Amino acid sequence: MIYFTELENLPIYDAKGEYLGRLVDLGIDPSQNPLQVATYLVKTPKNQMLNITHDQMPSISVRAAQTSVTTADIRPYTADEAMIRIKKDVLDQQIIDVNHKKVVRVTDVDFDIRPTEGHTDLKIIAVNVGWEAAVRRLLKGFVAKHTIRQVAHLFSQKTIPWECVNLIEPDPARRLKLRISYDRLAELHPADLADILEELSRDEQKSVIESLDDETAAQAVSEIPARMQIALLESIPASRAADIVEEMPPDKAADVLQEMLPEASAQLLANMEKEEAKEVRDLLGFEENTAGGLMTT
User: For the chain, percent helix, then strand, then coil, each to nearest 5?
Assistant: First the structure.
């Protein structure tokens, strides 16, 4: 087991023993292997970014790492939106713990490390959200790494297996590239899913809702507070909002539309199927001064 906090800023040397720079991030390519570290990002003393592939890394430890190639054979790093970067996308980010049905912030990332056919394999196994990881972060750079391990183990450990982690990516295009799926969220009870939504920012809520089927999204939206319902539905395309509202019980749909701005309410109704829209309009028009009432003239 090795932790990202132990690898960050690790000195990296090439095959000749020449200093390359320090490790600043790790990349995982979900399209190839969703667990294996595919690339090591190294910053040189001249602030250039290098991309060392996993098969170029035969030796890595908490003290240093050495490549199997010389500097001339190492490519410069170019941004790749299809790559999950541990520091950029995971560390210190909010993620959804599917097993415990809540949102947590990642403090460290745990890897399995082992030599394999001339190179070192690093595979992500869990994210750490407990005090043990927090202590490692606090002591990093001030205390020797082996001492940090001894001290950190005195504190409670709380890890979430990587397979139970849902990353939150607001950008739909990048979410597709990273192959992020919220299928497991659809299996949760609507009340649990609503609790998760309440802990997210508006963009993060949109990310989750846009990835759920209409029925599941409607059940979850029905459980969140009214103001949050309205803000969320008004923030997504009217056609998708209409699909979600169509799956809600008519009285709840009427309650939501009653509280929306007239223009937004009218646009949403215009995008609904005629039968569902008529049912909601009837409730809005004939239950004046009630929870579902709204003058439509």
Answer: 40, 25, 35
